[in-house]
Amino acid sequence: MKKLRVLMVLAGLTLSGCTVPPPFATATPTTTAIAPTADSAATTLNWGTPTAGDEFNYVGAPDATKWSVHNSAGHNGNGVRSPQQVTVDGSKMVITGTPDGTTAGMGAKFARQKYGRWEVRAAGSGDNEYHMVSILWPDNGNWPCDGEVDYAETTGDWNVIKFFQHYSCSNTQTSATKALDVSQFHNYAVDWSPAGIVGYVDGVKWFEETNTAHLPPGPMHQTLQLDWFPDATADGAGEMRVDWVRAYAAGDPTPTPTTTPPGP
């Protein structure tokens, strides 16, 4: 059910180039109270009120006070990231990728912090050469040494979502995979604390990293990307849709609530 209209250097897995203003104006977002979202980690685990984010309840380019939209080569030099490929339609942010690899990505100016909680409501579809990614990226851009947290990523199959926790200068990874219809909206969340990193889908824990040596060493920020991975198959279009992005204050990871079976 659609929410009330309320409430990765920055870019992808490998980024270059500078950010330039979008070629069209950004409307001023409306300010309204945020309603709780069912099947949300924030709601299920009582994360409280968001400290920052974007409800995408306006029309035009992404709010320039909140986002840096990339104008650069695409992931691993494939295609390009163009500001013209991302827009807000009054209820969601949409990135459109063309068959020739013209796509988009953007990094948040808000919640640039060490430790915290982030949640996005997102969906994607189209050609399998396009990968939808929601990432925590190091503020200083020192990749791979300072890590990367891909807490919702597709890798060529829109029926599977993956979590990749990148760490160390050798770009080592811990990962998880979950069958999921990514073409439908789901709530993807990550909780990063000194104790570890926990990932959630629709309020249910599905990833956990408790080795503190694998945690990012410094502040991170949210990025949203639709990355192009061309292969030998025919090229097609792709799309990433984001209903909202919300950031919360840091806290210790909270176990997913369990239900105790009734007694005899």
TrEMBL record:
Residue span(s) of domain GH16: 45-253
InterPro entries named in the record: Beta-glucanase-like, ConA-like_dom_sf
PROSITE patterns: GH16_2 (PS51762), PROKAR_LIPOPROTEIN (PS51257)
Record-linked CDD domains: GH16_laminarinase_like
Any one GO molecular function term: hydrolase activity
Phosphoprotein keyword on record: no
Full protein name: Glycoside hydrolase family 16 protein
Keywords: Hydrolase, Signal
Gene3D superfamilies per the UniProt record, alphabetical: 2.60.120.200
SUPFAM superfamilies in the record: Concanavalin A-like lectins/glucanases (SSF49899)
Domain of life: Bacteria
Signal peptide start and end residues: 1-27
Pfam families registered for this protein in UniProt: Glyco_hydro_16
